[in-house]
Design the sequence.
């Protein structure tokens, strides 16, 4: 049975498009059944509609608290009966109640080699630090911001003279490759999150992944 995927977005939806495109492949074990944005003008909503996927705009404006918004968000998401919830440029900090509700089914993509550069402006921070490599991480979402166990990373070089836009373009190319792959692993029930010795870990094919995720070259 094909896994049901709901994608949360706030902007252009390029990672959403990568996942939609992957789902069109004959052997892909999942399908995007719904897209939800907190921004009414997010271009990702257009991408969803173009692919005949139900798209919902639920603005966070007008809600009294993060908790009340997240509860409304859960209601919208659950109408799709999802197996997997994918954060693809969803620019909101989620409440503990939301994260706990979808624990183990909720993943995010972050533009850095976690645990480096949690939060915003990751490309410029890598340049300012003089890093020779940068990249992207897909991770399970926990209550710690950008702190859930890493599943997969992709590295890119940082060249002399790079701007943050140069580096972002290089990272985006890798994002579109690795995010559909991780979603596929979840759809195939090959990937899960467990608590070991009070710490959450990512497990792929019954093997506990390292702090840098699968197939990281140390």
Sequence:
């Amino acid at each position: 049975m094909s896994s049901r995927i709901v994608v949360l977005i706030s902007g252009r939806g390029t990672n959403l498009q990568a996942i939609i495109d992957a789902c069109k492949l004959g052997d892909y074990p999942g399908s995007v059944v719904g897209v939800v944005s907190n921004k009414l003008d997010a271009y990702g909503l257009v991408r969803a509609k173009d692919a005949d996927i139900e798209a919902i705009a639920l603005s966070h404006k007008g809600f009294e608290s993060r908790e009340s918004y997240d509860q409304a968000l859960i209601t919208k998401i659950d109408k799709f009966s999802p197996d997997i919830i994918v954060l693809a440029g969803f620019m909101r900090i989620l409440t503990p109640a939301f994260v706990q509700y979808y624990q183990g089914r909720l993943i995010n993509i972050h533009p850095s080699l976690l645990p480096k550069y949690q939060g915003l402006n990751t490309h410029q921070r890598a340049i300012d630090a003089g890093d020779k490599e940068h990249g992207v991480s897909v991770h399970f979402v926990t209550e710690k911001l950008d702190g859930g166990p890493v599943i997969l990373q992709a590295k890119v070089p940082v060249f002399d003279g790079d701007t943050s836009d140069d580096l972002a373009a290089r990272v985006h190319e890798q994002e579109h490759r690795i995010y559909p792959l991780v979603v596929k692993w979840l759809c195939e029930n090959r990937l899960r999150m467990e608590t070991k010795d009070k710490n959450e870990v990512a497990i792929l094919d019954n093997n506990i992944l390292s702090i840098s995720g699968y197939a990281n070259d140390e």
Notes: The chain has one domain: 3-208. The chain has a mean pLDDT of 96. The first strand starts at residue 3 and ends at 9.
